[in-house]
Amino acid sequence: MIRLTTITSAALIFATALCSCNGTAKSTDKQSKMTEKVVLLGAFDKDSAYQYIADQVAFGPRVPGTPAHDACGKYIVEKLRQFGADTIIEQHAVVEAFNGDKLPINNIFAQYNPTALNRVLLVAHWDTRPWANMERSEERRMKPVPGANDGGSGVGVILEIARNLQKLAPTCGVDILFTDAEDYGNSNGFTNNDESWCLGTQYWVDNMPYTSVNRPANGILLDMVGGTDARFHRERYSNIHAKPITVKIWGEAKNLGYEDIFVNKVAGEVVDDHTFLNQAGIPTTDIIEHMSDATGSFPATWHTLDDDIQHISKKTLDAVGNTVLNVIYKEKAI
């Protein structure tokens, strides 16, 4: 899927101390602070998001060119229609993988409030890896990944966000992009393979349905956002190229009480769909589990046959969905 390139140290933590002078009385936190009321601006349903993931997994691995892939693509388009998307575009193409395979891809694009000039782009890849290359045995490594978390979770959260947008229209414009052939990359070695990943996104940025006027101001990529006990650190490329939206997301997560899940520290950098969106001029942050407590990198199920629905957490889906939905609803028209 994606390649972890480096791990950086966490940002320095500073502390300040307050003291009282001449024995005068101190003001307590209770007297001096106003408690911010936590308000969920949407009605994100973690059970629905979980079901959308289960539905995708039920098709089987969504490898480009397979019947499961085709069926799941139709399912996603139908859900977007059901949830009232103003515009739906299927971008069909054939791309060549690093190994010479010709892949029939389908990038699925939708819009809400298409006339708004201030737009947010939500992104997730919907394909799954054709090889479980992190398995120990050669026989298991040659099998396709179920892709509940890596491929299914981002789509499930965004579909539930779309359901909310139908019920309560956003002030800003919201674009949705489900990218294809993200996970067909070359995992051998750690250099010079970057462009073998995210083939659908690379095709999309070369054929974007935007002008300079309606191009989104920010993008939010959701990748592996449903794992059990997941922790989301600020990805380094996101912190460099899309810092305002990154700060906004992690700040909103803290306001909602999810600071244990959204860890406000900068971790390593990954090559993912946001890499190419940032290069194309759309500042995009990546919400991705890439500093797992268990592995120090991607979650233990990554590129294995254990990436199944049993390893999806509704608690994690709830935190991600509510945070992103709140960020969207707080965006202004201009």
CATH top level? Alpha Beta
CATH hierarchy: architecture:
3-Layer(aba) Sandwich
Report the portion of residues in β strands: 15-25%
Neighbour order of strands in the largest sheet:
2-3-5-4-6-10
CA distance, first residue to last residue: 36 Å
**Element string (H = helix, E = strand):** EHHHEEEHHEHEEHHEEHEH
Query: Helical amount among residues, as a percent range?
Result: 25-40%
Q: DSSP helix count? A: 10
CATH topology: Aminopeptidase
How many domains in all?
A: 1
User: Uncertain spans, ≥5 residues at pLDDT below 50?
Assistant: 5-35
Q: What sort of overall outline do the alpha carbons produce when their principal axes are compared?
A: globular
The number of distinct β-strands equals 10
CATH superfamily: Zn peptidases
Task: Indicate the mean pLDDT.
Answer: 90
